[in-house]
Design goal:
This protein is α+β, with helices and mostly antiparallel strands. It is built from four helices and four strands.
Length: 139
């Protein structure tokens, strides 16, 4: 999950024809640049950040199998600015009846693993340190 921007840019470059097909006025790059800049939050990375911090994210992948089953692999990852990493993984062999319920389960299991990583990260932090969770706490 961390350090994927190079892969993303490579994918965008490889799929430029598809992007242009979906965005017919793509040649008007200024429009998209301005749209991005309106929402961009810049940060001065040259500043030294004194607090200890964990960033947490999760993802899942699935392998469909014959007979309507699926193997769901869900992972969560916490990385700190002091060289500590926390990993969690759940493997669920499932057969589901409702696509809606299945999608909700995937969302909830990702959030659950993020919360577990966050709880473990607390042991490494002090007052004033931060945990950044990419996800929702509403689950």
């Amino acid at each position: 999950m961390p350090n994927f921007i190079d892969l993303f840019f490579a994918e965008v470059e490889n799929k430029m024809d598809d992007i242009k097909r979906i965005l017919p006025d793509f040649e008007n790059v200024d429009y998209y640049r301005d749209l991005l800049l309106q929402r961009w939050i810049s940060y001065d990375f040259s500043r030294e950040y004194k607090a200890r911090a964990f960033g947490i994210d999760s993802s899942n992948g699935e392998i469909e199998v014959a007979g309507g089953g699926v193997f769901l692999i869900t992972r969560a990852f916490g990385i700190s600015n002091f060289n500590t990493r926390i990993r969690k993984l759940v493997f669920d062999p499932l057969v589901y009846r409702s696509v809606r319920d299945y999608n909700e389960y995937k969302r909830l299991i990702r959030e659950h693993l993020e919360h577990l990583v966050g709880l473990e990260a607390i042991d490494y932090l002090n007052e004033g340190d931060v945990i950044l969770i990419d996800g929702s706490l509403y689950g």
